[in-house]
Amino acid sequence: MSRNFGKILLSLAITAVLTVVALVIPADAAQSVRLQYRTSSPGATTAQAEPWLQLFNDGTTTIPLNQVKIRYYLKGAETYRFACSWAVVGCSTVTGQFVRQAGTDQYLEVGFTSGTLAPGSNTGDLQLRFYRADWQTFQQSDDYSYGPQTAYGNWNKITVYVNGQLAWGTPTGSEPTPTVTVTPPGPGGVLFDDFTYTSSADPLLAQHGWTVRGSSGGPGVPGATWSPSAVSFPGGLLTLDSSTNGTAGGTVQTELSTTNRKFQEGTYAARVRFSDAPTSGPDGEHVVQTFFTITPLRYNLDPDYGELDFEYLPNGGWGEPSNILYATSWETYQGEPWQAVNTHTAERVSFAGWHDLVIQVSGGRMKYYVDGRLFADHGDIYYPETPMWIMFNQWFIDLQGATGTRTYRQQVDWIYHSKNEVVSPADVQSRVAALRSAGTAFRDTVPNP
């Protein structure tokens, strides 16, 4: 339920740090990686940094790319956004997130969702870029990893980690010591619902701990209506129909939320249908389709705030031109002036259709899965400290001013949560299938606060 998608990483007091030792340590004797760098934006001041990279395997063993992390170090606490312009391995397999270090420094961590790097081969071009969220120019010449060279060459100011071990380059800076929360052993209750309701006015919804939103306020278009009547359950599918005629008064947004804040560590899963085009009317609105957990913000920069998001933008928004799926983990934020402490992973492809979404929260890490594939792995200061609500909503970032009413639809087949237990995506599907086979439409054994 992001109010904006800036990433202004604040300078927070750090009482303990791990000093990064400036040594190049091979990850494995049979495994030797090497990185080459060039830039297509060599100016000291730029609108966007454009590091181009090539990763080489000079060893004798194949390297799974999902074990590789590349870190580009930069100075300042500005909010940046990452993009992959083109890659031989395919931009759909390339991920990027900004990670804060002690003080105001940070690094861009580039990873891969799939693929391998055989001995004697290289990835080919990874044409990457990043830019400030407000599109202001910035100075890159003082960034540790920056170099003005426009031809490829070995570059040890960008590091490569394989399976968590430094395999290339010399890192810089220090990082906060992560606070690890140990999840108590064993499950602590289960929530399952396959949304067998007659309408948003069905009294069973409230009895089962759900609230259909009708109150005003954010996120989304100021002055828009949150309408319970636009939430329905045809064929046992939670259906959110959000619409607009291009005016605030003619904009309807939708949300379903758990009534109780009783969810923190454990596994969250839902089968969600995203859509790229409206069910009626002209396309083009910046709509956000979501599955997330959230804690209320009591005051600006509340340290107990938490939020774990899946957000799909079929038509882009927040500076993105087209389809993008975000997994975002929040520490806190303030509204005015806007500042946010969060980290995100994104993929810029269409996710229209049904998807199994899973978030595992345990041991100081949050792992996001899409259709059984690890999509994002976050943790550290972004780990949730307090119980949260579970929510689905669909809302508009802004209005494009097109004529005619257009309606966008998001649907949910089921929701599953196991408290204090890490459940694999495959096991989630097996458990949901078993519940349905037994004729169970709803179960909630998660203790109320």
From TrEMBL:
CDD domains: Glyco_hydrolase_16. One of its GO terms (molecular function) is cellulose binding. It comes from the Bacteria. Gene3D superfamilies: 2.60.120.200, Endoglucanase-like (2.60.40.710). GO terms for biological process: carbohydrate metabolic process. Pfam families: CBM_3, Glyco_hydro_16. SUPFAM superfamilies: Carbohydrate-binding domain, Concanavalin A-like lectins/glucanases. Residues 133-423 form the GH16 domain. Residues 29-173 form the CBM3 domain. This is Cellulose binding domain-containing protein. It comes from Nonomuraea jiangxiensis.
